[in-house]
Hints:
Elements: H1 3-31, H2 34-39, E1 43-54, E2 60-66, E3 81-86, E4 97-105, E5 116-121, H3 126-133, E6 139-143, H4 147-165, H5 173-176, H6 206-217, E7 220-224, H7 231-244, E8 251-255, H8 258-271, E9 278-280, H9 296-299, H10 307-324, H11 330-361, E10 364-368, H12 375-385, E11 395-398, H13 406-415, E12 423-428, H14 443-450, H15 453-461, E13 466-468, E14 471-472, H16 477-487, E15 493-494, E16 519-523, E17 532-534, H17 542-548, E18 550-552, H18 554-569, E19 577-580, H19 584-595, E20 607-609, E21 619-625, H20 641-648, E22 651-659, H21 661-665, H22 670-682, E23 684-686, H23 690-693
Parallel strand pairs: 7-12, 7-13, 8-10, 8-11, 9-10, 11-12, 14-15, 16-22, 16-23, 19-20, 19-21, 21-22
Antiparallel strand pairs: 1-2, 1-6, 2-5, 3-4, 3-6, 4-5, 17-18
Helix pairs in contact: 1-4, 1-14, 4-13, 6-7, 7-8, 10-11, 11-12, 18-19
Amino acid sequence: MSNAAIIDSFLDSLDYEKSQDIELVESLLKQIPLKGLSRLGLAISNLTVTNSRTGLAGKLVIELAQTQSTPVSSDLKNGDIVIIKPYSKKEDNDQQCQGVVVKISNAESNSTSPTSLAIAIDESQENIATTMIHSNEKFYVMKTVNTVTYDRMNSTLRKLKEFKEKSISNPIIDILLPTEGVKKLRASIPNAKKSNIQFFDENLNDSQKYAIRFSMENKLSIIHGPPGTGKTYTVVELIRQLISKDSTSRVLVCAPSNIAVDTILERLSKSIKDKRWLLRIGHPARLLKTNWYHSLDILSKEGTDSASIINDISMEITKTIASIKSIKSSGERRKAWAEVKQLRKELRLRERKVINDLIKQSRVVVATLHGSSSRELCNYYKSIEEGENDNLFDYVIIDEVSQSLEPQCWIPLISHLQSKITKLVLAGDSKQLPPTIKTNNNDKVMKVLGTTLFDRLVNMYGDEFKNLLNIQYRMNAKIMEFSSKAMYNGELKADSSVENIVLSDLPGVDSNEETDEPIIWYDTQGDDFPEVDEEEDELKSKSVKFLYSSKLNTNEAYLVLHHVRKLIESNVQQDCIGIISPYNAQVSLLKKLVNGTEDSPVYPLIEISSVDGFQGREKECIILSLVRSNDKAEVGFLKEQRRLNVAMTRPKRQLCVIGNIETLQRSGNSFLKDWTEWSEDNADLRYPDVGEIYE
């Protein structure tokens, strides 16, 4: 396929995906009553405005709280884009506004306290928001489509297409999309004996050191980091090596999610003494609190000579906005908003100078893939053109590339074409969770968007630029064994420090049949553990059903609780245990059974989540509830071997699987067949009695 055809296929697929995403939200709003949206965790209802204030960067923040407790689980979290809508049907459809959640509390399913949240409003909608604030209405909040991300990917790809059509040469783009007929790049193989690298971390293993040497010597490098192999430590060491090469080089570090880039920044912050070298781009609401010290938004308001002037202007903006509520004349109100607009213009000019200075003194800039094209970074190029500053970035690192859509990965590269980027490092694991795609009814779109940059480059170059980290430091060798054979060609090795660890090695934990086994499988075949559908009656659209209908298995959930009790009786601490299920309905049921409620807690410190919620995480013990148990041998989500690979590689000392082996083996899925057959030979196989688990 030609480069133009590749780019066009991305553009077409993104347009389709965007339309599906928008259609899904519209279907939810039209089909499902507010109570149904709340039950699905998609909305928070019964809210009133309790306060409004000026937040970071002069943004208007609305604070809302429930007037009474509505104990349902919500998927909303800091950084989500939401719409605020009034209950009243008399309100015009335009009477809604959009913003970013900057704070949320008591939204978890086992909380019976009223939920409260704070939302930073888009500047373009502050006039509407001010009207809503003083309307004395009740509101609900719902997560919505972030169309800005689609538009950004679209514009990035169009720039890339134009760039290639003009046959402009760029060292990195030419590697990722080589010109037809031009000889492909060959990797330079590092020689450890000739290398003069002095590693900062002396505990790195040979595969980690080789990956770093390779990355230092090549324009393109792919670091393949299976579970527990220290990918983040390797990336952190590489960053330190890159900025130590000379005194002016600057690295842009990106990932698809905020938690991924914050994890790297947190590790870097511990190893780099000069904190001014580290800069985090992005809305503070989306950052870990431990990284606020590096936030560009926060630093530009604090700790600089210009900060007091900027804060004075912000206070004036707040004062003016507050006065608008008492202005009845529409003409006077427009005049007041014009004054706010002028104050904001002055604020931005002063902020730009401060921001440019902060960027200039940094050596490592950390952002999400979308955040890498932020206004602050792009404005820096104007100062370069004016002769004030030098090159912005020399190197780009993209972590968790296998969870990223390829169009996302082009954002930092195309946004910073003016930089003299000489090196691209990709890190991730193509055998773990893929990027999230909403489309489920178009095979072509699913294939185009499901093929990551990691996948495409390996297809193009083979393993020439890929370096596998092969020593894992997380789990017992037996827990690792099947994943290594099935997903990594048997190349993973357990470090001696974890090779034989079990729960009974933990301080104070009894040694018995519940704690000495690294793998336990409760086989639920038979009629005693049937799965059931939990499908909202309101879900009429096929796409809505696909994403939000779910399944649960009540007896299996009680079996989970049974095993938890055995572990607790053996003195395993609650926070050492994690419970995973691929089905949200089962997760909700398990939270009620195992966590209990605020008024009646059972084991509140045990973490229970979907597979996605545990990506990149670990626990001493993981209990995996598979749910599926039926005569038709239908297994649904369990066919997704990358998702199962994540689940089975989260535990350190014990993996306890609860599932129907017969259903899995009859499903026709080779991965499930291999896993169950391996488990029959290697796990402690148990056949539960329903009567015993309810005792």
